[in-house]
Amino acid sequence: MKLHESLAIELSRKLSPVEHKRWVVRAIASGTLGFAIALGLQLALVGHVPLVTWRLAFTLVLCLVALTLALRKREVAGCVLMIAASMVDLQLSFLTDRSFPSVGMLALPGLIVGTALLLGMRAATLVTIVSAVSTIVMHRFSPALRETGFTAASITWHSVLVVVMLVALSLVGLSLSAFERVYKKMRNKERDLADTMRFAPDGILVIDARQHVVRANPAAHHILSVQEDRIVGRDVSELLLEVAPRANVVRRSAGETGDEPLAMELVGTNGAARFVEATWRRMDGDRHQLLLRDVSERTRAEQARIVADTERRAMEVQLAHAQRLEAVGQLAGGLSHDFNNILTAVGGSAELLRTEDRP
Questions:
Q1: At what angle do helices 17-41 and 107-119 cross, to 10 degrees?
Q2: Which residues of the chain are under the pLDDT cut of 50?
Q3: d(CA 332, CA 340)
């Protein structure tokens, strides 16, 4: 089903049901208020004319019923009843009108536009055909043309009315077609954005002006180890403080942006630590993005490298110490060897002197 064929049904399916209901209720309430004002002016200015008064009162009751249906989540039924009551009221006014052209003829293009917006182009086309035929028939039997029949002036007025109704139908059809194209482009962009967020390896949190999370992708659920129903709608500071009590990022205003990522250490439900880099990004309006990148493997690799470097430096210190001890040992061995040589020479000389002193 195309959008311009049934705008109300498509809006109720694609857009927010609350917004659609509000739109329909306002339209029906406006029509109800219009008939109430018409009835009040009739009684205040002209007085009680039985046929006119009862016609307006009956139409007002039907409008109230249509408003009740719309409030009870039966928007399409309420729209149909509202448009049918308005069209019948206009045709009955033509039948009892003593002047021509009738003032109610000005309301027919507006009725067609309202039908197209509420029920779609098919319903608007049907209302256009029925209104054009019934208007001519009702005017023929009205007091204004009952005796004279159709004149050149009445034929001209009816022709102009039919042309205006067709122009109104065409314009609203073109407008809805243009809206359909824009709507499809918007839906495609939203679908592309949703796919990008869903398959992005980094966690993405969309934050509104109140610092509440309005959207989170699956990667963010995985990184934060928090279910979706516990992320969306929460204050971002409270959320991050829950999973990262020592994170400085929660004390940074979301209104500040920068290319320098902030380091976070998250604690999962299983107690395992996860290292994350958080970066703020400004979006259109008052919204912001908080990008979360899991750098646990890189951080652990850097920590392992630091440990390895520390151990290597300790081993180098030990090796240098051993080399110094070895050098000292070699020096002591050389000195002892030289001293031993001296002692040997001294001992030999002493022994020689002792031998010479013997008789």
A1: 160
A2: 1-6, 8-10, 12-14, 248-255, 257
A3: 12
- Report which of 231, 197, 195 is spatially closest to residue 217, judged by C-alpha positions: 197
Helix (H) or strand (E) holding 203: strand 203-207
What would the pLDDT profile of 233-245 be if each residue is shown by its tens digit? 888 777 777 776 6
269 contact partners, CB below 8 Å, separation of at least 6: 225
Amino acid letter, 152: A
- Amino acid at site 355: T
pLDDT for 56-115, tens place per residue? 888 889 989 988 988 888 888 888 898 898 888 888 888 777 777 777 788 888 888 888
Evaluate whether 275 touches 299 at the Cβ level (below 8 Å): yes
| 126-158 burial: b if 16+ Cβ within 10 Å, else e | ebbeebbebbbebbbebebbeeeeeeeebeebb
